[in-house]
Recover the amino acids of this structure.
């Protein structure tokens, strides 16, 4: 095999690789000899088929498989000998005319590969990185509030007298039809729906106009959708709703006691409180983890500056931009609404893409240098969690990931990243800082993470 570098520009490389025809012919002969003992052809005894006849029947298709194999093997070997790692699968170029000659035999296999190498950089020390781990205390009041929320979901209601009026806390059974400029709009109607006065589940002003209503009432109420309403065609618009009240029910007594806890499968109210506290601790812990990880990534981002593989950046940018475009379409907003332009937005999101690629390469190198690996058990757990997201289709999900190495790698990548983050957090300075619940749950810019 002969390898010649034909282009080198930054991280971009182009090689010309030539594999002698004799090597291909040798592989073909080995293949046909093996086939000779297995194939059954009418008119010939097993193992007695002439080599020329076999070559005539199977030579071209066999050579096609051999060429594909040789291209992959020789490309990998060329990079290995050059001590380079490709950021992505190299792009192979083989002229159609040359391919036909190679398949016919007797002609060297010559092809070009284009690729981008992973950048070379040294890992910086991490012992000077300092991180504050935000920790929020879980109060008894929060546990009690969560218990009350659970209780509200199981509260019973009793129908009130025919002439009773609707009060705060009552449950109304209503039908409604929403209209814009007198015309019904999509998603603005429901029949025999529950409305709980005081829970503010409807748009502002809707529930308040039903306080004092009676069973059998029919009325029209006027409201205005919030300017930030999720449906862009309704945001900020005045609307009317035709309402009919079918039932008014008063809330039954809610006793948060041992008997109630037992209806939820717990031994006692204290046991239920413990389970609720554990659930809240898990939620707080996850949020703390995200905050700590963000600080670590920010610190690493400041330590490194190196050339990035353009194709990796472009792919990451495309993922981000599709996400941004989908969100803007869903919300009905424009770049002007965000006080920017598309050009400026693209520039900012490209910086985010570059950050993601750079940090991905840094974390990958830390993991490789410190022999961080994803175990089979960890990968299996990730696969199970993924399958759980598709109830009833678990078997199909398992089969999909097991048959597609790239898909399986996509499951492994986030597990690997979290293990590398754990490794790095053990080497940096971490101090706890008590914060409020609101501070803990203040959202960071997700795209920049």
């Amino acid at each position: 095999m002969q390898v010649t570098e034909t282009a080198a520009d930054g991280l971009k490389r182009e090689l010309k690789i030539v594999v002698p025809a004799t090597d291909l012919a040798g592989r073909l002969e080995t293949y046909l000899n093996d086939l000779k003992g297995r194939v059954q052809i009418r008119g010939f005894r097993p193992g007695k088929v002439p080599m020329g006849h076999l070559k005539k029947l199977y030579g071209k298709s066999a050579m096609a498989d051999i060429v594909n194999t040789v291209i992959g093997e020789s490309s990998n070997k060329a990079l290995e000998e050059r001590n380079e790692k490709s950021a992505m699968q190299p792009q192979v170029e083989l002229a159609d005319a040359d391919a036909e000659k190679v398949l016919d035999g007797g002609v060297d296999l010559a092809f070009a590969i284009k690729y981008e190498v992973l950048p070379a950089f040294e890992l910086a020390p991490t012992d000077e990185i300092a991180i504050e781990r935000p920790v929020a205390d879980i109060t008894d009041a929060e546990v009690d509030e969560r218990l009350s929320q659970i209780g509200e979901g199981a509260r019973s209601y009793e129908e009130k007298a025919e002439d009773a009026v609707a009060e705060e806390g009552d449950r109304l059974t209503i039908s409604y039809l929403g209209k814009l400029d007198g015309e019904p709009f999509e998603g603005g109607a429901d029949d025999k729906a529950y409305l709980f006065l005081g829970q503010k589940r409807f748009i502002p002003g809707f529930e308040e106009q039903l306080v004092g209503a009676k069973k059998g009432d029919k009325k029209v109420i006027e409201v205005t959708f919030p300017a930030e309403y999720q449906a862009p065609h309704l945001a900020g618009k005045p609307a009317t709703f035709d309402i009919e009240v079918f039932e008014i029910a008063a809330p039954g007594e809610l006793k948060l006691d041992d008997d109630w806890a037992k209806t939820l499968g717990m031994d006692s109210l204290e046991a239920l409180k413990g389970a609720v506290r554990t659930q809240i601790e898990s939620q707080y812990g996850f949020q703390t983890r995200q905050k700590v990880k963000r600080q670590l990534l920010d610190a690493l981002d400041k330590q490194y500056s190196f050339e990035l593989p353009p194709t990796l950046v472009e792919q990451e940018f495309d993922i981000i931009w599709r996400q941004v475009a989908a969100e803007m379409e869903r919300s009905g907003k424009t770049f002007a609404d965000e006080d920017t332009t598309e050009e400026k937005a693209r520039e900012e999101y490209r910086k985010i893409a570059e950050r993601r690629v750079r940090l991905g390469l840094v974390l990958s190198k830390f993991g490789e240098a410190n022999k961080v690996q994803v175990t089979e058990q960890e990968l299996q757990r990730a696969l199970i969690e993924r399958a759980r997201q598709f109830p009833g289709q678990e078997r199909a999900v398992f089969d999909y990931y097991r048959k597609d190495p790239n898909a399986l790698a996509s499951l492994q990548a986030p597990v690997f990243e979290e293990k590398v983050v754990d490794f790095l957090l053990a080497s940096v300075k971490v101090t706890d800082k008590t914060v409020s619940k609101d501070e803990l749950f203040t959202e960071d810019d997700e795209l920049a993470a």
